[in-house]
Amino acid sequence: MTRPLPFDIAPWSVGLSGVDAERMGHRESVFALSNGHIGWRGSLDEGEPLGTTGAFLNGVHEAHPMPYAEDGYGYPEEGQSVVNVADGRIIRLLVDDEPFDVGSGELAVHEQRLDLRGGVLHRDVTWTSPAGRTVRIASTRLVSYAHRAVAAVRYTVTAVDGAASVTLLSELAANEPIPGLHPDDRVQAALDRPFVSVDHHAIGTTATLVHRTRRSGIAVAVAMDHVVSPAVDQRVETSPDLARTTIAIRLGAGEHLEVVKLVGHAWSADAAPDALRDRAEGAVADAARAGWGDLVAGQRAALDDYWQCADVVVDGQPRLQQAVRFALFHVFQASARIESRSVPGKGLTGAGYQGHTFWDFEAFVLPVLTATAPDAAAQALRWRHAGLDAARARARQLRLAGAAFPWRTIDGTESSGYWPASTAAFHVGADIAAAAMHHVQATGDAAFERDIALELLVETARLWMSLGHRGADGRFHIDGVTGPDEYSALVDDNVYTNLLAARNLAGAADAAERHPAAAGALGVGEDESSRWRSAAGDMAVPFDESRGVHAQSAGFTDRKRWDFAARDPYPLQDNHPYVELYRTQVVKQADLVLALVFAHDAFTPEEKAAAFAYYEPLTVRDSSLSAAAQSVIAAELGYLERAADYLAETALIDLDDLQGDTALGVHLAALAGVWMAVVAGFGGFRDGADGIAFAPRLPPDVDLLAFGIRVQGRTLRLEVEADRTVYRLTGGGVPLTVRHFGEPIVVEPERPIEAATPPLRETGPAPSPPPGREPRGFRDALAG
Amino acid sequence: MTRPLPFDIAPWSVGLSGVDAERMGHRESVFALSNGHIGWRGSLDEGEPLGTTGAFLNGVHEAHPMPYAEDGYGYPEEGQSVVNVADGRIIRLLVDDEPFDVGSGELAVHEQRLDLRGGVLHRDVTWTSPAGRTVRIASTRLVSYAHRAVAAVRYTVTAVDGAASVTLLSELAANEPIPGLHPDDRVQAALDRPFVSVDHHAIGTTATLVHRTRRSGIAVAVAMDHVVSPAVDQRVETSPDLARTTIAIRLGAGEHLEVVKLVGHAWSADAAPDALRDRAEGAVADAARAGWGDLVAGQRAALDDYWQCADVVVDGQPRLQQAVRFALFHVFQASARIESRSVPGKGLTGAGYQGHTFWDFEAFVLPVLTATAPDAAAQALRWRHAGLDAARARARQLRLAGAAFPWRTIDGTESSGYWPASTAAFHVGADIAAAAMHHVQATGDAAFERDIALELLVETARLWMSLGHRGADGRFHIDGVTGPDEYSALVDDNVYTNLLAARNLAGAADAAERHPAAAGALGVGEDESSRWRSAAGDMAVPFDESRGVHAQSAGFTDRKRWDFAARDPYPLQDNHPYVELYRTQVVKQADLVLALVFAHDAFTPEEKAAAFAYYEPLTVRDSSLSAAAQSVIAAELGYLERAADYLAETALIDLDDLQGDTALGVHLAALAGVWMAVVAGFGGFRDGADGIAFAPRLPPDVDLLAFGIRVQGRTLRLEVEADRTVYRLTGGGVPLTVRHFGEPIVVEPERPIEAATPPLRETGPAPSPPPGREPRGFRDALAG
Q1: pLDDT of B276-310, one tens digit each?
Q2: Which of A542, A783, B162, B409 could covalently link to A551 via disulfide, CB atoms 3.0 to 4.6 Å apart?
Q3: What is the 3-state secondary structure (H, E, C) of B265-320?
Q4: A544 close contact with B: CB closer than 8 A
């Protein structure tokens, strides 16, 4: 691990002083701003030094041919990749004709600070040019939650020690390549300049670029305007790939120039370029009318609303407190305004994974949204629902019934090039179904169930029926699929997959029963749903009797054990072929242990303990998706130190760049895993058919843990102390019954109730993680 | 199936009249000539109409980057592809300035005839030009067995009905692209013009082109000279990619021009271009000195020697007779003069599979060579031995011990781009080991065992030890590998793989015991070889007790059964994804049934019957490698009609173009399978630790079946009639004991002995093949 960037510790912000030109990518991801529709990486205003550029619009992608060394039926012929849209972040500054550059002159102050409550990125600079002229630069950047198509920058230059000529060049720059999108040179080359210019022009002080992608045919308009104080002339020029506004002023000592740059965006695969241009320019005009103060206030208001339920208080551990809020902030901004779009694995903070979304959004992120920002969760599920036609077509291509959702995608069609770890990982369908069921249960939104969830459940249930079969043993088996653990593939009866498929099948039958007319319209009859119930009831769940533990998949526990004594460097996949990883007992990421979380009521406490004891020493956490699940089960089993270790690991994944790839974007699902580790882990939150349950305990060295969840439109917050938990229900209506360590308690609206914490059951030492993969230990991690 | 080309039926030749311009590729493969070093497809002399061009030198290939949609550790970065070398086949003819073209004028006679005893390709043409001038053209083409570097054409033109001006343009043409080498456009483009010119010149009447491949750096020299009668002037011109000799003469009515074109070849990755040029020109000069008659005689002599043992007589079935000899001819010419090179899956008859060799050469072809042309077999094994360093490096890369031989290769390095069906198919190592053991046993060549076979056995044994592991059940398990059946992959304990691995391990221990010094030099100690014996003895062999049948691999018989009722078109892989094929009970090619052949003594007769009954209805024969093995086991079980069906299928695979892809080259292993179906199937030939056994029976409607095998330098021939078999041993020395239907009989040299055929055990009807994959029935097939 490289030394992490020295972010400062504060309860509601993340700040970084100085500039390390070699490690800009990390900061750019951490400081990225997004509203789920627009994403701007946290690059410096002047664009240099640069890690990787990044100005994204959710859904804007280029298509490219998929290269294969050997062909196969059903291999996707075309892939998708996120590309940079015209980039409105750039504001270059000249002071007495000398370009401001953090690498020249003297930099007395340089700080970037992400405001987790204000939803803005501040930058403060005091710079003395090589010629000796000192200026103070303050910029504040936002991607608006209220004005979905708008991002904005307020840029202020103050002449500190004498008069200075100040020139700002503010740009829209198109066709900036993103290196490393694809390992194939030809594909990369096709993505380097994805846009052709359709239009560019200036009207008054508004400049607009309109482009279209070459292959995917997506048109994008980006417009900018500037509000300048004091008022000075703006020179506005445009060319196919560059629009530039030049603002020049002579400032006296102590005087300052303030420029508010407003950038509007519009894109469509269908709309005419002129219409898009007008939309982008209209967005700018509307933001200008509202004014900077209103934009900033809108950020705060949206976050106040979010934090009211979502905030997690961790008193006594300031670094964890910061990390937890940082994580929840990224979860929020990745999805705040998605409106029926996917949420990529990196959100809109980087181009990692080519901007694709994966199953982990539904499995890890969506439950957090359902519990804290349910409207965003509904939007994400609506996107999956809109993708049903593509998923049905993919199922037909795969000779399956129902819908086969893509493993990785931007537009809903499959974009993966290695089927054993993608197409075969059919559990994505069950993950979507689980997220939909959970959302319905948590919100009580019957219309959503009828219009959206039901069809998702029905079509995924049909997939399982055609994928699986009933064996001679009478059980329902699902063979030759890949579970969450990417160090195994094409296995039979993966426990995670089978249990989630069983829930999917039963959930489809339940939903069909609740909505008979809608189900009938989908062709679901009594016969079909009773077959679903029967398959769900008879689902095979491999258990190794001789070892007394569940097998991750059939035969897993009989496989050769990984030779940990060889002390190979991690991640193992960098130095070992799949053929070795797949045939041995080594686990990249929680798989059976994830089943213990998501299908918690399918296991006895003893089975959970046996499973954790067996899989903990095999699980190398080469995926960022692992630690959170391990934290939850460690907490459930009473291994609170281990649970805290993994909580710290998932919380610091990006601030400490634990995988060395945060430069490609934050690990959104791992950040959502922080919530999971806090709420489901230490909070013991479970929900199931029999309602909501908690078993709250404090993490070590924490004085107070507080968190909230949304329950059917209301907010339930818990304040956990060492010996007791206070439950507080906000919002009118009937009381809510929850179980507290198994005992039902009734929470009346607006009347907090206190419940005592039972003593912790004695546990032995936690099972050992693999050699070389011991967690840092939360105390070390949180010491920074 | 398209209507097959109407080859005529003759005992020792294959002839075809007329020209079907749409289907030239098929004929070009059938009529391809080779000596294992040079390969010339059977294109027309004048080059058009053309299916696919093809002038190959064994080992000459171009390298290309391997394109991947997603990267993985251990994926080969570079692939190899056969390319055309400078092509010396072309002789264009002008008659009174009109170009001879089978598509113009009138073609009274057009016949090509492959002489299976003479080793030449004849062509006879009587053509009347559009202007009304009639000529007779006779060409005879050969690729010399005696002069390894030489191919030659005798081309004769006779003026039939009046005086004619005749002009011949005889060429060497380089950089002729082969379409369809690779599915990736960029790779294909790199292979289209693989050569840069290094030198071109003419000295006297000899013209030479020297090229070098761009990426693999292989230099190739091709020279030509012409012997012309009557003597006329030759104009010789060269340019970088074309050398041309022009011969013009005025023929009176009845007069003829005879041109013998001699083409010499040389290539090397190391030698200087000048040296190669001299080698190619020297080969031409030497052939010219020998003369045409000598070249032709050399062909006959080599084939007489081959047929003396290898010939299979099938009296009463003329089409089968022809097909069997055609098959054995291609087996011979593919390997006659390989001299430590690989034999591609298509021989040198086409560029299918990019010219790669696969495991089926060792499994199917090499035993035939050992039994009929043991020196060629030894050469092929020496090539594998020479590839040990590359195979050891590959094993290290894969984190395995010993040697991991490539799945597909030209130069010995892995060139496959889909690892689940290549790298994971580790059985290739055991197939090589089996071929080496069989060769040693059949030849008694102790020096070969010590110098070549031992190291092959030792290093492959080491691979198995590192690949497998001992389970809690005490058995040795090999998990996560792929067996012969390409509709399954990454399975545990594939019976074929495990049984051949066990033989490999035990064979390595045996060989080490026989050659202790050589084994010691390889670091083999008593400990290691006893671990091999122990693993071999404890090898897991999955047997499904409830169904009373071996499972092709662990759990196979529990999988979902393929839905044959859907009547999907074959081959299934064209319309079904791997993820479906792999998880269901459907078998592309004999796998367990192949184990019944190669590890025949590991099964009881009852187990064989149960296995055939179980797998026959699942085996769709989408691979050409299947029918022969099924024929052998059908014959062993007494299903002689079914055995004949499959014998006919494998024998006619290319003459009838049963898979529709013979244009890419002949199916060499399937052709070798003809020998297997005759000798191991109807002949009942088995060899094992306890010697050689036969159980000869006639195929239906056959009066006499005769075949031979080489046994330790001698030839044993069998003449099988309905009620008896005559055994005839040629060559001096001690008598040979063989088992005839289980009873030992002693065959004295030069003293034929007769043994009676016991009555055929009653069998019920043979198990049904899959719907839509019933064999044609040998009677229909052989009726043509």
Answers
A1: 999 999 999 999 999 999 999 999 999 999 999 99
A2: A542
A3: EEEECCCCHHHHHHHHHHHHHHHHHHCHHHHHHHHHHHHHHHHHHHCCEEECCHHH
A4: no
